[in-house]
Design brief:
This protein is mainly β. Helices cover about 0% and strands about 50% of the residues. The protein has 1 helix and 49 strands. It starts with about 20 loop residues before the first strand and ends with a strand.
């Protein structure tokens, strides 16, 4: 069989009723609802299947759980709840600290892998330092609870002075190994004191943010800490080391495997030193995206740049805010790594290359380019996937289970979202901007296995994902009431109760993906071979394809909204190589989509016209 050279190939979604659809998650095993919870940030489950969920409540409001539990929060307005594997609330505890600002009043990360439950409180997960000397964000508490909800320890991470509200503001991530050691990562400003024996003072003073990585014993004592601070010679316009961007809420680019190896990703400036004082320390010669790993003793294992991971964006040396940076990550116990990359772009567009695949976004407006990449333990690229929406996609959560399946969650803005060969529509009109909760389940090969939407109100989000060893999955999220939205929240195929309050959070448990469903998503052996070139093109482009058998072929062209513009082919064709030319000389610059149907096979792609 004659092979076609793939010059450029990107899967897209066309807004047509006959578009291939991914499997829905189906009905949940159970759903627990919590009225008047305006946000939930942390989610994790222990080996018994009990799940721990944190969140925030408006001042003066009670939490009414759908199992009949009522919780009256204290003045700090935060909570940590333990829910048994059967969906019944076992206990709810208030947060440890309080404050007047919004952000300090939040329990963000929850880790529940051992006999203890760890949380961090007061973190700024996606934010920046503004206003006063420390941004008025306050310090950070790392809390340790027993599985019965008893407070065992609250460790305060302080700035250069003792005042509770004159301290660094950070985003903080927690993780735990199989021996119960806990690891923390985040930002500090000027000075960070974990205890009198462990103080980080960077070489530069001022309001720059620097990254720290710390390890604690199961009893809560500090084992070691590293500070990573760059020099003033960093990229202009982006002079801060960052492990997260302004995404709310957001899992930081930080994770820990079962052996205690830590993984940290983000933007680091020229001159940053990793593992300072160690024989194998590394100093960056230029600013850029970095993923670094340390072992459980705090020794540097490896460091990889974005380029070494195969991900590069156009104009990184001239426009640092367009650099492809891993904003969140997850790791498997055998070292497989999945990264979520965000690349801001403006009206001039952005060009991103991942391995041998090139992506172009030139929509004529500002936005965020979202990519998911999967890497082998040696850093080599296994697969790349992109999510797009009629407005934008905000991915804030990422997780990987023991079977190597990948889960990404967050929300999208607009009428519809495009995921490989699938289009998902939230039912809203094209005009109003709606935020819809989104969860995508990829199998180990990167094929879309299941999808989940949270629709109904104008604003909803998936904000927690916790896969279990047996394949079960816990999913948390919330919806904010809007008087212009409907009264019901639709979670996949399930309808939540009518919202009597201002907002509602949910916690749902889903069963494992069945073998029958997995077989529905296996890629066919004899897939359509298709390529398009040149891309971008000025006046005309060629779409070439290879037919396995004699088939009736239809080749249609659409605009980015899914409106049909032309039919290039509509006839029966013999097996072998064929091509069709698109003459777009009279069309405006922009993105054009095509759909090729040959018998029962479908292939899609995207072309970009630049005059």
């Amino acid at each position: 069989m004659c092979r076609i050279a793939f010059l450029f190939l990107v899967s897209v979604v066309l807004a047509r009723p006959d578009t291939i659809q991914a499997q829905s998650f189906g009905s949940a095993t159970w759903i627990l609802e919590a009225r008047d919870v305006v946000s939930n940030f942390g989610l994790d489950a222990d080996a018994s299947g009990s799940v721990y969920m944190s969140g925030r409540v408006p001042s003066g409001n009670e939490i009414h759980w759908s199992d009949g539990t009522v919780f009256v929060p204290e003045h700090n307005r935060t909570f940590l709840a333990r829910v048994a594997a059967d969906g019944i609330v076992r206990w709810v505890r208030p947060g440890t600290r309080s404050g007047e600002s919004y952000w300090p009043d939040a329990i963000h990360t929850v880790v529940a892998q051992g006999a203890h439950v760890w949380t961090n409180e007061g973190a700024v997960r996606g934010g920046f330092v503004t206003g006063s000397r420390w941004g008025n964000f306050g310090g950070i508490l790392i809390n340790r609870f027993s599985e019965n909800g008893d407070s065992l320890q609250a460790t305060y991470l302080a700035g250069p002075v003792d005042d509770l509200y004159d301290a660094p503001g950070y985003f903080l991530g927690l993780g735990e190994d199989d021996d119960g050691n806990m690891y923390a990562a985040g930002h500090y400003i000027d000075t960070l004191r974990l205890n009198p024996m462990h103080v980080l003072v960077p070489r530069e003073r001022g309001l720059n943010q620097y990254v720290f990585l710390a390890a604690y014993s199961p009893e809560g004592s500090v084992r070691w800490v590293h500070g990573m601070a760059g020099s003033s010679g960093g990229l202009r316009g982006n002079d801060s080391d960052r492990i997260n961007g302004y995404i709310w809420p957001a899992k930081p680019a930080f994770d820990v495997d079962a052996q205690g190896n830590t993984y940290l990703g983000g933007f680091f400036r020229k001159g940053t030193v990793f593992a300072a004082g160690q024989p194998d320390s590394v100093r960056l010669e230029k600013s850029g995206a970095i993923v670094v790993s340390y072992d459980r003793a705090g020794q540097l294992r490896w460091l990889r740049t974005g380029s070494e991971l195969g991900v590069e964006a156009d104009w990184p040396s001239l426009r640092p805010n367009r650099m492809a940076v891993p904003w969140s990550l997850a790791v498997s116990d055998d070292g497989e790594l999945v990264l979520q990359w965000s690349v801001p772009y403006d009206r001039r567009g952005i060009h991103v290359t991942v391995g041998d695949t090139a992506f172009w976004e030139g929509s004529g407006s500002n936005g965020i380019f979202e990519l998911i990449t999967r890497h082998a333990p040696d850093g080599s690229l296994r697969w790349v996937r992109r999510l797009t929406a009629s407005e934008s996609v905000d991915l804030t959560e990422i997780a990987m289970d023991r079977q190597g399946h990948v889960y990404v969650g967050g929300s999208y803005w607009g009428h519809q979202v495009q995921i490989e060969d699938t289009v998902l529509t939230n039912g809203s009109a094209l005009g109003p901007i709606t935020q819809t909760g989104l969860l995508v389940h990829y199998d180990a090969e990167g094929d879309v296995a299941r999808t989940l939407l949270v629709t109904g109100p104008r604003y909803s989000m998936v904000s927690g994902i916790a896969p279990m060893p047996g394949g079960e999955l816990y999913v948390a999220g919330f919806a904010l009431e809007d008087r212009r939205g409907p009264d019901q929240i639709i979670l996949g195929v399930d309808t939540l109760a009518i919202r009597p309050g201002r907002s509602k959070a949910f916690l749902a448990k889903y069963g494992p993906l069945t073998t029958a469903r997995e077989s529905n998503h296996e890629r066919p052996v004899n897939r359509l071979q298709i390529a398009h070139y040149p891309n971008p093109f000025a006046r005309a482009a060629t779409i070439a394809y290879e037919l396995q058998n004699t088939s009736h072929v239809v080749l249609r062209i659409y605009d980015i909204l899914g409106r049909e513009l032309a039919v290039l082919v509509d006839e029966r064709q013999s097996a072998g190589s064929h091509s069709a030319m698109l003459d777009a000389s009279a069309w405006p610059s922009g993105i054009y989509l095509y759909r090729l149907e040959a018998g029962n096979q479908v292939a899609t792609g995207r072309l970009v016209r630049r005059k």
